[in-house]
Design a protein that fits this description.
By secondary structure, this protein is α+β, with helices and mostly antiparallel strands. It is built from 7 helices and 9 strands, in the order αααβββαββαααββββ. The strands form 4 sheets. A 3-stranded antiparallel beta sheet has the order 1-2-3, with helices on both faces. It has a two-stranded antiparallel ribbon with strand order 4-5. The longest helix has 19 residues. It starts with a helix and ends with a strand.
Length: 191
């Protein structure tokens, strides 16, 4: 909206009618009590998608004793959506029925889920900072791993069957998928 369209109007006049009373109630409370208000709220402008905003409202009194309401609004919609996606990803990681390992670009383990510990017998603390090669059974030779890493670095993923060894020494077969997680510039951040 243009500045001229906003001057002389309250935020409540610009929002969905169902939200108007909420904004007016907060404005009246801050004007009456002089207590600063900081709230995370939903804002729906006419004809627009709802936005999540952080509002900070304060009462200002001039030299003549006249009260003014001063408000600062920050649109935090994208940040809130990112938080929701991160919580979902964390939930999937935690509750997956497959063992999941996250490494840094050098292959050092930075996290594993509970199913990883059940499959391998290693606790999270035992593997943090270590390379997944601690699981190698010795049944695949160096050429196997060279080919794996070549495909992973050139294609961004590798999938196949691997023989690994649990902490107790038991050898087992697993279907393994490794994917590179890259930033917008294509730099690998994690596997």
């Amino acid at each position: 909206a243009d500045r001229k369209d906003l001057l002389g109007k309250t935020l409540a006049e610009r929002v969905d009618p169902r939200e108007q009373e909420h904004f007016l109630r907060i404005d009246r409370q801050v004007s009456r009590d002089g207590q600063e208000s900081t709230l995370e709220e939903t804002l729906t402008l006419a004809g627009k998608a709802p936005r999540t905003i952080l509002t900070k409202k304060s009462r200002y009194t001039d030299d003549q004793g006249t009260h003014f309401l001063v408000g600062v609004v920050h649109d935090i919609t994208e940040r809130k959506q990112l938080e929701v996606r991160q919580k979902l990803a964390a939930s999937v990681f935690t509750h997956a029925r497959e063992g999941i390992t996250i490494t840094d670009p050098s292959g050092n383990i930075i996290d594993v889920n509970d199913m990883f510990t059940q499959i391998t017998g290693y606790s999270r603390e035992e593997v943090l900072g270590k390379n997944p090669r601690i699981l190698q059974s010795g049944r695949q030779g160096k050429a196997f791993y060279v080919a794996l890493w070549h495909e992973l670095t050139t294609q961004g993923h590798w999938s196949g069957e691997v023989w690994n060894r649990r902490k107790n020494g038991e050898v087992y077969a697993e279907i393994l998928t490794i994917s590179a997680v890259r930033d917008d510039a294509g730099t690998t951040l994690h596997y």
